[in-house]
Design goal:
The protein is mainly beta and 547 residues long. The chain has four domains: 167 residues, Glucose Permease (Domain IIA) (Distorted Sandwich), CATH 2.70.70; 158 residues, no CATH class; 110 residues, Chondroitinase Ac, Chain A, domain 3; 85 residues, Sandwich (Immunoglobulin-like). 8% of the residues lie in helices and 46% in strands. The protein is built from six helices and 46 strands. The strands form nine sheets. Strands 15, 16, 17, 18, 19, 20, 22, 23, 24, 25 and 26 form an eleven-stranded mixed β-sheet that branches. Strands 1, 4, 6, 7, 8, 10, 11, 13, 14 and 21 form a ten-stranded antiparallel β-sheet that branches. A five-stranded antiparallel β-sheet has the order 28-29-33-37-36, with no helix packed on it. The longest helix is centred in the first third of the chain and has 14 residues. 36% of the residues are buried.
Length: 547
Amino acid sequence: MLLLCAAVARAQQAAVFSAPFNFPLYLSGNFAELRSNHFHAGLDFKTQGVEGKPITVVADGYIARAKVQAGGYGRALYVMHENGYMTVYGHLQKFPAKVENAVRERQYADECFAVDIDFAAGELPVKRGEVLAIAGNSGYSFGPHLHFEVRSPSGEELYNPLLFYASKVVDTRPPVAQAVAFYPIEGRGAVCGKPLSVVRKVQGGVLADTLPVWGSVGFGLKGLDYMNGTTNKYGIYEVELYVDDSLRFTARMDKFSYSENRLINAWADYARLSSGEGWFLRSYLLPNNPLRMINADDAAGVVNFCEERLYKVEYRLRDFHGNSSVCAFVVKGEPSEIAPVERAGGYMLNWYLSNNVCSQGYSLAIPRGALFDNCYLRLSVVDSLASPLYKVVGAPVPLWHAARLTLDIPSSLLPHAEKCYVERVSGKKRSSVGGVVKGNTVSANVYQLCDYTVAVDTVAPVVSAVKEKMWARNARAVFAVTDKQAGVAAFRGSIDGEFVLFEYSSKNGRITCDFKREGVARGKHKLRLAVTDGVGNETVFEKDIIY
C-alpha cells in the first residue's frame, strides 16, 4: 500500500509540469550539487550540445521577471504559474519578442547592459506547451544548456525539480562513495591515537583497514553520483550514516532557501576543500549549522566511542530514482590519551557572540552567528615593501554572514589612497574583495577568515580590439577587456556621441556591439568605449570606423 501511495504521489507531481524540451532529457548538473559558497539551485538540462533549441512553457502562468547580466544566469526568465510555483530559466539566447522589446527599452533608458525587470501579473501570459524562449550559453555558462529551477512564489525556497521530472530522466546507476574522513573532536576524541583528522579511500564499498578510535569522533564522506547516457558527475541525493545499525545522520536534497546557501561551508570540510582535496561532507553538525537538508541524532551525529570493541559503521547512499549503494567499515574502540587543548597568542571567537579582533593596523568585526563554530584565531604579520600581509595561522575559516575588515593603508600607499582596496591572498592567487577608503584606512565585507592585505590599483583596464578588420564584414565590434586587480566594474559604449548597447560576457572578457541589431547605419562613424575598474581607473577606446 505504501509503495502504491508513493507511486501515485510521484505521478501527481509529474503531471504538474510538462518537459521544457521535446527531446529526451539528460542532465549536466543536478539539484543541490556542491558549488563554491552555494548549492546548485536547479537542474541543468542538456541541449544536445548546441544553442538555439526552443524551450516550451511547462505550465500555464505569466512571465514575472526578466534579467540580463554579464555573469550568473546571463539572460534569464522567471515565470509565475497558476499551480503556485515559480520556474526559472537561465543562460538563454533569446527572449520572447515582447520581453526583448521591454529589455532593450530599459537598457537604453538606463544606458546600461545589465537590467532586471518585473512584469505585472497577467501582463505577459503564457500557456503550457508554447515556446517560451531559446536556449543558449549566456552568463557564466561554459557550454550550451538550460538552467532550470522550481521555486516558491516568493522565489526564496528552491525545490528539487526531479520531484516533477524523475520519470522523464533515465537513471539506473547508483552513487559511489570515494573516501571517508575521520574527525576527532578537539579535546574530546582521538583517531589512531592522535587528535588529527585522517582520510581513508573507499574501494569496492569498503575501507581496507580498521582504525582505532576513542572518545568523540565524527565522520565525513566524499562521493559522487552518475546517470545513464552521460559522462557527467553529480551530487548524491541522500546519505545516511549508521553506527551499529543506529541512524546517526541523514542528508536529503529536496529543498533549501537562498539564505541557507553559505551553510554549505558549515557542512563541508572547508579546510580540505581550500587545500584542493575536494568535497568532504561532514556527517555531524557544527553548532551553528541550521541547514534543513541535514539532520542528526541528539549528539549532533558525533559518536562516543567509549568501549573496547569493534563498531560497525555504514554509509547508505541513494539517488532520487532509488538506486543505492553501501559503504561499510569497522572501527576499533581503543583507549587513547586525549591531549588537552593548548592555546596561546591569539583570539578565542565564539559563534554565539559578536567578536572583535584588533591588532596593529588590523580590525575585524564579526557579527553574532556569522561563525559556524567556535574557533581560535591567530594572526601573523608579514612585512613587505608594498603592504603588510595579515596571515591567519592554519586553515581559512568560512563565515555565514559578512564580517567587516578594516586595514590601515601603509604610508607608502597613502599618495594613492583613493585607489586602494582589500585584497584576499591564497598562495599565489590574489583577488579583490573591494573596499571603502576613509582617511588612512580601507574597509570591506569579508566571508572568510584568511590572509588579507591592502593593494593599490593605478592601472586602467586593458581594452583591445579583436579582429578589427572583420568588424565591417561581420557588422559587429568585438573587444577583449581585462583588469587583473580591482576588476571590470562598468562600461559604456557610444557611436557618434549617442549611447549604443554594448554587451559584456564576464566568462571570456568580451564586450561586443552588433551594429545591425542596434540600427547603426552604413557609413563612417566615431566609436567610443569607456571601461572602468573597481577603483575608478578608466580606459577609453575611440576610433573612426567605416561600417
